[in-house]
Amino acid sequence: MSQKIIVIGGGIIGLSSAYYLSKSGYDVTILEKDCFANASSKGNQGWVCPALHTPVPEPGLVGNSLKWLMKKDSPLYIKPSALPSLSGWLSQFMKYCNERDFKSGEDALHNLSQTTFELYDSLTSEGLEFEMYYEGMLFLFLNEKELQQHINKFSERSNLYGHENPIVFSQDEIRKIEPNVSDDVIGGLLLKEQRHVNPESLSNAFINKLEDSNVTLLENTEVTDVELDENRVVAISTGEMKMEADTFLLNAGAWSGKLAEKFSFNLPVQAGKGYSVTITNPNLNFSHPLYLGDTKAGVSPFKDAVRIGGTMELSGINSKMDKNRIQGIRNSVAKYLKAELQGKTEVEWSGMRPMTPDGLPVIGKIPNLDNAFIATYGNRSSIWLQFRQE
């Protein structure tokens, strides 16, 4: 009889974990309190860019955060009313905004992402059908200083981690590549080996594959309690239903902190809310995903649609959509385009991803429990996934 594993959380990390566990011969059940892949796995930019992997806490961010605190259109916004509940986490976060910890975190993330492209290619070879694009990532700049800083940064990472060197483009060259870019863009750079996916198509590919396997998928099934016996998890409860298993894997994203308490584990995770707008049949088309270097917003072209997004909001776990943040993204993107971006329909979205104080993933065995594990991670405004088979 194969070992039974319960995966808690049906976002992209939970779905991919269930997929690989099932491939390895385990009897897998995956639980999701809402619909599968309906939180931060939906509506993000879909960037698959190992060359961009850096921790969120970085040198100088504390000073910038103070300037941004009251600006709802800033790249990072901390809601003043949430400060009391965030204070402990923020104090830890600020401690990591230094050169030493940033460099250590950067090393860890780049090491983790070494096989990203190889693993994505293996998904397609195994029959998962989803939108994946290979045009690279184009960075645009309104400011010469920002452009030069990014050139230096990516050149340094190329030497350190073996990533590609950036290809630098002049103002005129940018407009030949992307005709819909504004004359205010003074130049840019291309990382041609980077990719992007449509995140909803990727999640659906996993769901379809799991449905065709022996994996049990239970949505609208929230874990309400965890039964412990010394150093083991015996069972979990989902309302009136009790479920037993040999091993338990927690992948609940921004909700992982609250659920970890039921496993007698203190996990310092806060929700980082991102926003996006998906525009179908757009009047402006783009050949590459665009990282807007001065405003930290992004543009991702998909089949018959384009998505603009960005920002990081720390306001606790809540589903409220701040229209000022949405407008801030629209304003940020408009600075880089020659005309207003419009389309047939526009879908506004917000979603919360898990944020740790050091900006690093939490992966491994839950302390003091022999049969419970955790895997949770959120970063910037993108998908940033590595599928690990170990």
What does this structure look like?
The protein is α/β, with parallel strands linked by helices. The strands form four sheets. Strands 4, 6, 7, 8, 15, 16, 17, 18 and 19 form a nine-stranded mixed beta sheet that branches. It has a six-stranded mixed beta sheet with strand order 10-2-1-14-21-20, sandwiched between helices. Strand 1, helix 1 and strand 2 form a beta-alpha-beta unit.
- Share of residues in helices: 25-40%
Shape: globular
Number of strands: 21
Assembly type of the chains comes to single chain
Q: Tell me the strand percentage band.
A: 25-35%
Number of domains: 1
Quote the average pLDDT. Answer: 91
CATH architecture annotation name: 3-Layer(bba) Sandwich
Rg, Cα atoms, Å:
21 Å
CATH superfamily: FAD/NAD(P)-binding domain
Nutshell version of this structure?
The protein contains ten helices and 21 strands. The chain has helices at about 10-25, 60-70, 85-95, 100-110, 115-125, 145-160, 170-175, 200-210, 255-260, 325-335, and strands spanning about 5-10, 25-30, 45-50, 75-80, 130-135, 135-140, 165-170, 185-190, 195, 215-220, 225-230, 230-240, 240-245, 245-250, 270-280, 290, 295-300, 305-315, 345-355, 360-365, 370-375.
